[in-house]
Amino acid sequence: MNEAYIRIENLHKFYPVKGGGDLFGRKTSRKYVRAVNGVSLSMAPGEVLGVIGESGCGKSTLARLLVRLETPTSGDISVGGMSTDRMSKENAKQFRRTVQIIFQNPFDTFTPRDTIEQLLSRPMKLHGICADDEGRRRRCEELLEQGNLRPADDILRRYPHELSGGQLQRISILRAMLLEPRVIVADEPVSMLDVSVRADIINTLLDLSRRRNATVVFISHDIALTRHISDNIAVMYLGRSVEYGPSDAVIKNPMQPYTQALISNCASIDIEHGISSPIRIEGEPPTPIDPGPGCFFANRCPRVKPRCVEAYPETVRVGENHTAACHFL
């Protein structure tokens, strides 16, 4: 493994809860939703990190923090040894060239009044790529050819509503790669697309990232797909990373009870560690406003013990580059 290019250190993001009183109008102490609650991860150049977990676990908030669409409450993210906070303040334009994001819904990504040529040319003009309009048009045509969008000259004249979701998401990836970023954050990039076009979209993303040795953070609900394309996987639950390791190690031999339950319910994956049938998870996750002092999974865990509700477990090493948080590993 190469030296880490991205470091996420004890990252927190809390959102204040609206309203500050009880039923009788008396003021109470301010409460916060703990969307990301102490995440620490690192990624090497060219690595694909998969992030999985239930809805509401903090995956998308983590993505927005990585690209500075949200400001951390505490903790830090560094890229190439420099804090993204410092990067974005000292040279915001360079930061945007270094870190790019691909959103879930391609139909919300583009301004509907602009043609595809305008949408692709504008960031090139802003960042001084190509000397004139003709050069930028040629570059746009080359990009579309790379993304198997043909005929390129016809695609460039169209508006977003005249293209399919798969075509738009491919263009979204091409636009993100246009500035040759070193980091790409893909937040559920294929979840809204037909299964028939997902493979092409993923292949486009991975092919372009390999050409530039870009680090990819791939956020998804699709565990089988994440396993297929990722070098390492981080499992999130209620704002925390509860297990991390090489993709095959996490999927084939999950150690944390929540990871075991999550993967056991994915019908397309066979896992080891004595799990032969889906593990039922009863109840709802605790509120992210006040999850309590113990393990956040305690009220749903089939292996819960009194110790679990008293203190949050330490993260321990369970294999080569494989860690998990549980009192009974």
Describe this structure in words.
Helices cover 32% and strands 22% of the residues. The protein has helices spanning 59-66, 84-90, 92-98, 116-126, 133-146, 152-157, 165-177, 195-212, 223-229, 247-252, 257-264; strands at 6-16, 32-43, 48-52, 74-79, 82-83, 99-102, 183-187, 215-219, 232-237, 240-246, 315-319, 322-325. The protein is built from 11 helices and 12 strands. It starts with 5 loop residues before the first strand and ends with a strand. The strands form 2 sheets. It has an 8-stranded mixed beta sheet with strand order 6-7-8-3-9-10-12-11, sandwiched between helices. The model has no long low-confidence stretch (mean pLDDT 90). Helix 2 (84-90) packs across helix 3 (92-98) and helix 4 crosses helix 5 (133-146). With 329 residues, it is an alpha/beta fold.
Could you name the ranges where pLDDT drops below 50 across 5 or more consecutive residues? Answer: none
Main sheet record: 8 strands, mixed
Structural class determined from secondary elements? alpha/beta
Average predicted local confidence, pLDDT: 90
Number of strands: 12
| Helix fraction by DSSP (H/I, runs of at least 4) | 25-40%
What letter string, H or E per element, gives the SSE order? EEEHEEHHEHHHHEHEHEEHHEE
End-to-end span in angstroms? 25 Å
Computed CA radius of gyration, to the nearest angstrom: 21 Å
Q: Tell me, briefly, the overall form.
A: globular
What's the helix count?
Answer: 11
Major beta sheet, strand line-up: 6-7-8-3-9-10-12-11
Please state roughly what percent of the residues sit in beta strands, choosing from under 5%, 5-15%, 15-25%, 25-35%, 35-45% or over 45%: 15-25%
